[in-house]
Amino acid sequence: MQKTIAEQGSDLRMAVFRLSRRLRAQKADDGMSDGQFAVLAALYVDGAHTLTGLAERERVSAPSMNRTVNCLQDSGYVERSADPDDGRKTNISLTDAGTSIVSETVTKRDAWLTARVKDLPKEDRGVLARAVELMEEIVSH
Amino acid sequence: MQKTIAEQGSDLRMAVFRLSRRLRAQKADDGMSDGQFAVLAALYVDGAHTLTGLAERERVSAPSMNRTVNCLQDSGYVERSADPDDGRKTNISLTDAGTSIVSETVTKRDAWLTARVKDLPKEDRGVLARAVELMEEIVSH
DNA sequence: TATTGTTATACTCTATAACTATA
DNA sequence: TATAGTTATAGAGTATAACAATA
Asked: Would an 8 Å CB–CB cutoff place B127 in contact with chain A?
């Protein structure tokens, strides 16, 4: 019984959503929402951002991002500093505590997945490695 | 250059997150939330459910599911009927309109991904199909 | 004037607690 | 008593509109 390409696409979508949901559930700080963690991860990967920059990157409104940043600031994970060149801008960056929580969460998320990948036959790990390349290709198109 | 298993896990996590984000951005544009659509899809795949059954399946509280079902009922996509054997239960099932909207939405949501899968060589589609099985296995563990 | 950040306000989705009907 | 469904109410997270400060 051969599946159609449309069915293969549908299967891939469902598998990716399920695995993504499961991975996202592995968090280091239970009080932090996905949106909050996404902001910390963006700052971790690409350094300081303005509020508008973060809002555009995460595709939420500026007031919504302002609220998220306020929460992270209250938790001590980010800090605001005035931009020396443009008085309207505020640079938002990770504190040491913010950097730590990102590393911890990434490690924890990877630990769960790595434990499951480790138990697969070598051949299956090869399939996943190639699938990763294909998914990257699909996303970048 | 051989990657470690931990690096493979990390690569897989990032690829899944990116593809998931990209797929979610291909929104259905029909005023229906993800939660509402998930309920229709569950009824479509597995037939009628009770309210509690739906709540457990989607991992939300019963009141939350009750509200979702109320919205879907108001939209004419599902209907409630008394269970003949147990007066406490209500069976929730798709209407004809509900069945139609599921097919339409699935087609629309998958169109983007299917178009990209279609352009891959046959071997690569085989890799993705096997990767889907592996991801399902990983999630169910 | 345009842009950046912020406050005010409202809507959606979620949860817990409490109530009703039935087993 | 226990279970299924529902209602009441509250807490996140989101959005648009409006405002202040700066370019």
From this structure: yes
State the DSSP H helix or E strand holding residue A53, giving kind and residue range, or none if neither. helix A51-58
Tell me the per-residue pLDDT of B85-107, one tens digit each, with 9 for 90 and over: 999 999 999 999 999 998 888 88
Residue B80: DSSP 8-state: E
Query: CB of A114 under 7 A from strand D?
Result: no
What gap in Å lies between CA B119 and CA A9, rounded to an integer? 12
Tokens read off for B27: 């929104």
Under 8 Å between Cβ of B113 and A138: yes
Return the higher-pLDDT residue of B80 and A26: B80
Which pLDDT tens digit goes with each residue over B12-24? 998 998 898 888 7
Residues 23-62 of B with CB under 7 A from strand C: 33, 35-36, 59-62
Q: How far is residue B15's CA from residue A132's CA, in Å, rounded to a whole number?
A: 6
pLDDT of B29 strictly over 70? no
Q: Which residues on neighbouring strands pair with residue B82, listed in sequence order?
A: B90
Find the farthest-apart pair of alpha carbons in chain B and give their distance in angstroms, rounded: 65
pTM attached to this predicted model: 0.83
* Residue the block writes with tokens 């590393």: A103
Residues 6-45, chain B: which have Cβ within 8 Å of A?
A: 6, 8-13, 15-20, 22-23, 25
Please tell me whether residue A36 adopts helix, strand or coil conformation.
Answer: helix
> Could you list the mean pLDDT of each consecutive 10-residue stretch along chain A, which spans 141 residues?
84 89 76 90 94 95 97 95 95 96 87 92 96 94 80
Contacts of A116 in chain B (CB under 8 A): 9, 138, 141
Q: What are phi and psi of B35, to 5 degrees?
A: -60, -45
List helix spans (H) across chain B.
5-25, 34-46, 51-58, 62-74, 96-118, 122-140
